[in-house]
């Protein structure tokens, strides 16, 4: 479900996000302007409020950094809320030495391996600002968990933006693994460049950098 395909309010919201993104792309100093970043945060909050008609289902799974912010928005919680069953994961896109730059790899680090065990056989709620873009981080998390003997039953994606290429790729790969999937997003970017970054009229800039000002106060890198 992509809201902007059905509701004009969602399309208008995505236009506003794109406008802010274009400004920060043109002037990187805005990443440090808390007032400017708050505008971006409030638009993200409004977007997740639009998604509340579709219940968020599953164990909250946050891909740091932006995922910590968006999980709380998706659940209608304050930025500093402590979520007892939250699974926090550190993923980082990398390029292996000697590999073409168009080949992606992802590193995965667990914050709490005991908490991680609760995803086994369960549905998870994977909320992020763009989810999926390429889909690499989410799939890397699933595969890394399987390597530890943990298998999720279904991945419920929830986002402000996504790419059609990402949805097709992720759904196909999850189907191969026998894992169900859903995708709920406010908007869609139909352009993903060869480096797997969003481009065109639905840019979001670096959401993680913009939203870092609103991470939980207790969060430590």
Structure description:
This protein is α/β, with parallel strands linked by helices and 221 residues long. It has one domain: Rossmann fold, CATH 3.40.50.2020. Helix content is 36%, strand content 22%. The chain has a six-stranded mixed beta sheet, sandwiched between helices. The longest helix is centred in the N-terminal third of the chain and has 19 residues. The protein is globular, with a radius of gyration of 16 Å. The relative contact order is 0.19. The model has no long low-confidence stretch (mean pLDDT 88).
Please indicate the percent range of residues in DSSP E strands (runs of 2 or more): 15-25%
Radius of gyration from the alpha-carbon trace, in angstroms: 16 Å
CATH T-level topology:
Rossmann fold
Overall tally of structural domains: 1
Average pLDDT, rounded to a whole number, is 88
H/E element order: HHEHEEHEHEHEH
The CATH architecture term is 3-Layer(aba) Sandwich
Helix content: 25-40%
Distance between the termini: 33 Å
Spans where pLDDT lies below 50 across 5 or more residues = none
Shape category? globular
The side-by-side strand order for the widest beta sheet comes to 3-2-1-4-5-6
Largest sheet: 6 strands, mixed
CATH class: Alpha Beta
Total count of helical runs of at least 4 residues: 7
Number of DSSP strand runs:
6
Search tags:
single chain; 221 residues; alpha/beta; Rossmann fold; six-stranded mixed β-sheet; 7 helices
How does the SSE layout of this entry go?
Layout: H1 8-26, H2 34-50, E1 59-64, H3 66-74, E2 87-94, E3 105-110, H4 113-116, E4 123-130, H5 136-147, E5 154-163, H6 164-176, E6 180-189, H7 207-211
Parallel strand pairs: 1-2, 1-4, 4-5, 5-6
Antiparallel strand pairs: 2-3
Helix pairs in contact: 1-2
